[in-house]
Amino acid sequence: MTVTTIIFAVMAIFTLGGGLGVVASRNLFHAALYLVLSLFGIAGLFILLEAPFLAAVQVLVYVGAIAVLITITIMVTRRLMGPVESLNRQWPVAAVAAALVMATLGFVLVNQFSGISTAPDVPADGLTLLGAAFVDPAGFLLPFEVASVLLLAALIGAIVVARD
Amino acid sequence: MIPLHWYLLVAAGLFSLGLYGVLSRRNAVAILMSIELMLTSVNLNLVAFWRYLSPETVNGKMFAIFVFAVAAAEAAVGLALIISIYRNRQTVIAEDINILKW
Q: What is the mean pLDDT of residues A94-112?
């Protein structure tokens, strides 16, 4: 059992335990905190996968922006957070469906991809390649611009919808 | 190195938890949080496949970054909708938001 394995196990426990907390805690505010734990676990897994830039973006975008936004929304709409029933009537069906999806995915993934435990080295200038691909007309320039338009539309749309 | 399918199993587990949350929670904010879990688990899949199958290209990381952008846009618009509905109906319980139902 190497150090990498232990780190992977800890991060996987953070991720899955946080996910379980999100769907299982009755108090929404606790669920938001568990969400932050889960997203930090994912950032740790990104570092293990040698994608440190993505780990930084994960912390900035998910933990820094989305989790804070969710927390503020929970505080603004807090009146209904007492001992209200947090699950709807169809939750047993939902649990069965999620378990079936997990079983199917697990079966297929283990069948198809077990045994791959070595990989080529990551290029040392990976971030430079990523930045160059963003502005390369033969690469990802057009999707990059489309993503910019999407973000602008979301920005304006959120302001218009939330304004009173 | 860690075998590839361990990462895939963690991502599949997180996706299933998110699916259960989306289908079973009543609060709209909790449903949005579960959707974030599903999006981020897909990201973990993308990065794991990039690392093990083609680390010399940038495509896997690029897809993950676009998923980040879409997730940010989705969270902003979704939470704005929830705040707007709360202002009009004083509820964020998904079953009670039935304005479009007849």
A: 93
